[in-house]
Specification:
about 325 residues, Spore Coat Polysaccharide Biosynthesis Protein SpsA, Chain A, 2 domains, 10 helices
Length: about 325
Amino acid sequence: MDISVVVPLYNEAESLPELFSWIKRVMQTHGFSYEVIFVSDGSTDDSWEVIEQLKADNPDAIRGIKFRRNYGKSPALYCGFGAARGEVVITMDADLQDSPDEIPELYRMITKEGYDLVSGYKMNRSQGDPLSKTIPTKLFNATARQVSGIHNLHDFNCGLKAYRKEVVKNIEVYGEMHRYIPYLAKNAGFTRIGEKRVHHQARKFGKSKFMGLNRFVNGYLDLLSLWFLDSFGLKPMHVFGFIGTLMFMIGFLAVMVVGGTKLYCIMNGIPHPLVTNSPYFYIALTMMILGTQLFVAGFLGELISRNAPERNNYQIEREI
């Protein structure tokens, strides 16, 4: 199979028939063998009923996954990636803002130019998007470029992306890490990452589900988490053990100085207050305790090594 199109969605019943018709027209025009995987992320409208009808009318082209509740875009993509069978996997949003007409060129860039991942760049994003969304997006992308080292991408969060099949089968998208799939791919060893300028259309039905300050703040926290896991996730002792050892040694030396000063005064008959009356003694003792705790935390981190077997255990109600 040439292409799998993964479409995560939440309450997009109105747009699904038009979106699938558009995708079908593009695929038939270019002679692609394909499947469209709709992942309903706990939708409360008629989205699943629409998917079932599309499946009945197009049994070989449609597949559907329905979550019992709303988990988020990353879990939807994770399950969609797991089900994908195409040699090239395309992701796009269900709101008709991503154009299926971009699929042939994205496919060519993967298969002919040898890219592992191609991300869309919505040049005309300002059309239809409020400043509360566009300004945080620009700041977010600038930070993501610096932290990830992928300097040729301008729109990390663009939903329209293309991947080689091996990429989606070897990365783990969880939490809200869908924003950083290029970074996840790079960390997994897929370094040929490209970008294509794509057309961004105004939303035709409903309103955006991903706006607000919470989205902006969470994006930076996720980026920080991913950077830390990339740098120290497989070697937590390197950071916790180093800082813990440093704090312990400073505290130990400080205690030695305080104790040595007291001993010197006793031996020379010089009056000197009790060691426990000195604030430096308690500061040094606290540093030794914290240093020991950090060292133990690093050791436990090495043992745990980020293993969480239930992290991607999502309750899927039905598959078709």
